[in-house]
Amino acid sequence: MDLYRLTIHETHDLLTRGEVTSVELTSAVFDRIGQVEDRTGAYLMLVKDRAMAEAEAADEVIRQGTGGPLTGVPLAIKDILCTEGIRTTCGSKILENFIPPYSSTVVNKLKKAYAVIVGKTNMDEFAMGSSTEHSAFMVTRNPWDLTRIPGGSSGGSAASVAADECIGAIGTDTGGSIRQPASHCGVVGLKPTYGRVSRFGLVAFASSLDQIGPITKDVTDCAILMNEICGYDPNDSTSVPREVPDYTGALQAGLKGFVVGIPREYFAGGLDEDVAQAVNAAIKVIEGFGATSKSVSLPHTEYAVGVYYLIAPAEASSNLARYDGVRYGFRDKEAEELIQMYRDTRSKGFGSEVQRRIIIGTYALSAGYYDAYYGKASRVRTLIMQDFNQAFETCDVLVAPVAPTPAFRLGEKLDDPLAMYLSDIFTLPASLAGIAGISVPCGFSKDGLPIGLQILSKHFDEEKLIRVAYNFEQATDFHTKRPKL
Amino acid sequence: MKITRDEVVHVAKLARLNLDEEAIELYTRQLGDILTYMDTLNRVDTKDVPPTSHAIFINNAFREDEVKASVPVERALANAPQSEDGSFVVPKVIG
Fold it and tell me: Which member of A131, A177, A431, A457 is catalytic?
């Protein structure tokens, strides 16, 4: 049996029954990484020695019978979550040698659960991108077609799960960065409601949008990881003090009485034929479980790209002001005067997409343009939220495509930032509204590329997403398919 | 032109970025395209619409003002490009 192919819940069963040890499982995952990593490029860094020590400790916990669902399970972490003592680069040269003095709350929760951390995964620099091509360090390839992007910005995490280079992973989503790579790599990815998961120790990109979530091989694993990472954290004043349900309780059959909304605007022109076909077929499957579907309208959808690409860069330009070469990170040592040092450090430390967004954001916030750009975008954001509120008055969930096309080719949109931004059209609205969304595998294109189904719920209604996704998964076998590597 | 070359230079200065001639030209063109696209927002009437800066309503997240341990100075300085006597060292500020 290839242990690395298993899910979190499958490995948990074997570990609990004593049929395998975490040391064996972790070794199997590292062997797998050794076989395929040169083709996928999922990891920026591996921490094998630490991982093996964590696996040994986990085995002891399991022997004592005090383990939990993640104990001894090898997981991959996006390199934007601070890990104490382990380099955290955000895919940026400016943080190339940054070793955080503390861990993010999510990483601490995983450690407390005795999960094994395998390594840190590749990403677009500071999570700004939809292809992982904006990493300062390396290219990540889609395990299903090595000439294509894995999606982004959590492309490394999604690729590592799809290529069985870990058992599960953590990503982050600001405008679709969990859902879109999950869709392109044929795995499950959930962006929780804003405030559901602590952002403490998550390097900030756009603070009103950033959210951490699981990327997994199936929906059951997604529920298990949600149970572990959610919850209020006094260290994050934007996390919401609200009880966390047992998400595995939502893994139950039947959707009788569920009302599924189908937003018209997500099926308009420009949608790839294979994607449309897969998503429409998925809706039929969901109806088969007793749900009724109805057409709804989210009339401000088309403005989401404009709103997001003003608000997110505006917040980023402010958040990234901290990288000045003084307290941590890269410093250009040639400058003889302070302001010049700031400028040289930032120009040499940030990549082109990050600089582009800092300039857009600074411009949108600058005197004379604030009302026309940032102010206008913030008002249209309200209308996008109102669209969702209205739809959720009569619908339990909404279903839609995740992305207009399957994974595009490496390099295809690299020289055309606007084209790259427009590919995020179906994930941005939920991010702006702060609602929850999941991507589950729902088919393949004629070229054999994975296609994801996006399911959206109102704030703090992740259980409904998991329930619909679980039912869909029970009726289909897309999630069991693996790329040939 | 949606954004001029001089505006790009000015904004880069505000953002503490150096741009070479090639970058100025590239960003002027690309930002022009992006900002032209942003004009689509002007089709929306937002006269009586309040702005949203945060998707979840949170009212004053207060905490008790308690003294707690903080990161020790050595650890806080461990990532500094240059430090001395418990402080960060920077190039001279006033010439």
Answer: A177
